[in-house]
Amino acid sequence: MIRRSDFPKDFIFGTATAAYQIEGAANEDGRGPSIWDVFSHTPGKTLNGDNGDVACDHYHRYKEDIKLMKEIGLDAYRFSISWPRVMPDGKNINQKGVDFYNRLVDELLENDIVPFITLYHWDLPYALYEKGGWLNPDIALYFRAYATFMFNELGDRVKHWITLNEPWCSSFLGYFTGEHAPGHKDLQEALIAAHNLLRAHGHAVQAFREEVKDGKVGLTNVVMKIEPGDSKPESFLVASLVDKFVNAWYHDPVVFGKYPEEAVALYLEKGLQILDSDMNIIATPIDFFGVNYYTRTLVIFDPNNPLGFSYVQGDLPKTEMGWEIYPQGLFDMLVYLKERYRLPLYITENGMAGPDKLENGRVQDTYRIEYLEKHFEKALEAINAGVDLKGYFIWSLMDNFEWAYGYSKRFGIIYVDYNTQKRILKDSALWLKEFLKS
Ligand code: GBH
């Protein structure tokens, strides 16, 4: 059985959340609307019309939630800042919103929990969306100003910062499939958004170097293991193409200052120009990559699909999201990232949605324990294979607003009863507590 003591001494275990998914208090203390408020209030965009107005009410219950983290024995906590809470119009400061994050950070530190902050986990101020959002090149400078403000405000106490969460999702789910806010469906827009997201990242890293001398800054990407879904040689080719599009696209420019050539070709084809000066900003050196790993993705060659490929279902056991459980992919991708980019890594998200049932005050989520244990093992194998993996954040601390799926999917190690806001440690949290002592 895997034990905590098998991991390096300074390895940290934590949980992760995101502001819009847990905070609630959407209209309190001067918070402005984000693209996700508008999107989730638009009929048909989220399952059952769910939205983050109340969510887990973490804005009011953060002390209780930190107490639970402490009880489990977590070393660290990754959360995101709601840009429209601190800058309701995307530019001007809302002191009450800033105060919340000061209280949150102080409470974490008092409990010896190391804060990791994500600056952007998808909740763009709606006022900036009205100015063009991620399609407006100026967005990178607005983001830089917001980041600079937050570094100044919290950088004395917070030493670990992540600029963006999963720019692939913000650009492709937000602007191409329309599954996420702002719900556009335009390939050219997705390409522009992706580039502006990376520019915003680079600007924030530059600001970080000026403001926080003794901290670390990185970028978190969703890292997908892409495999061919059948044995046709064409399917191997599309798998490697899709791999470039979801993985290398968001890592290569940050380290090498170059998009993979397949991405460059797509920009050219769509008549978009990429400036060298932009690439220099994007390639401002970072300290680590955050890895969000959930599953593998199978693709096959499909001449009838305009993209040239289709997604197919695999036959491994699946989570409630329909995602295959594939721990080996975590090992493979950690080793791949290490070889290609030679940077320290954190797993900033890993976890599963389960068929959780609260029965007699207990949630027996043995499947989640098994999922986590297997992924912990693969993380450890990666460390032993020479990967500089420094920490592991479970998604998520508690059940929360799962974007387009609303409250129907539960990823937490803590169960949330949305009628009463009562929190109940699932068996996985109790298992983790024992693990962390071992
Ligand atoms: C994360 O994104 C988010 O950062 C977090 O906010 C969210 O709550 C969490 O995941 C859980 O969803 O169709 O089988 O090929 C995850 C991004 C993108 C990962 C789609 C899985 C495809 C699975 N996901 N991806 S599959």
TrEMBL record:
Keywords recorded for this protein, A-Z: Carbohydrate metabolism, Cellulose degradation, Glycosidase, Hydrolase, Polysaccharide degradation
Q: Which Pfam families match?
A: Glyco_hydro_1
**EC number of the protein:** 3.2.1.21
**Top-level enzyme category:** hydrolase
Top-rank taxon, per record:
Bacteria
Q: Please list the reactions this protein catalyses.
A: Hydrolysis of terminal, non-reducing beta-D-glucosyl residues with release of beta-D-glucose
Q: Which PROSITE patterns match?
A: GLYCOSYL_HYDROL_F1_1 (PS00572), GLYCOSYL_HYDROL_F1_2 (PS00653)
What does the record give as the active site? Answer: E349 (nucleophile)
Is Ribonucleoprotein there in the keyword field?
Answer: no
Where does the record locate the signal sequence feature? none
Query: Does Signal appear among the keywords?
Result: no
- Recorded family membership: Belongs to the glycosyl hydrolase 1 family.
Q: Which PANTHER family match?
A: GLYCOSYL HYDROLASE, LP05116P
Q: What is this protein called?
A: Beta-glucosidase
Species source reads Fervidobacterium changbaicum
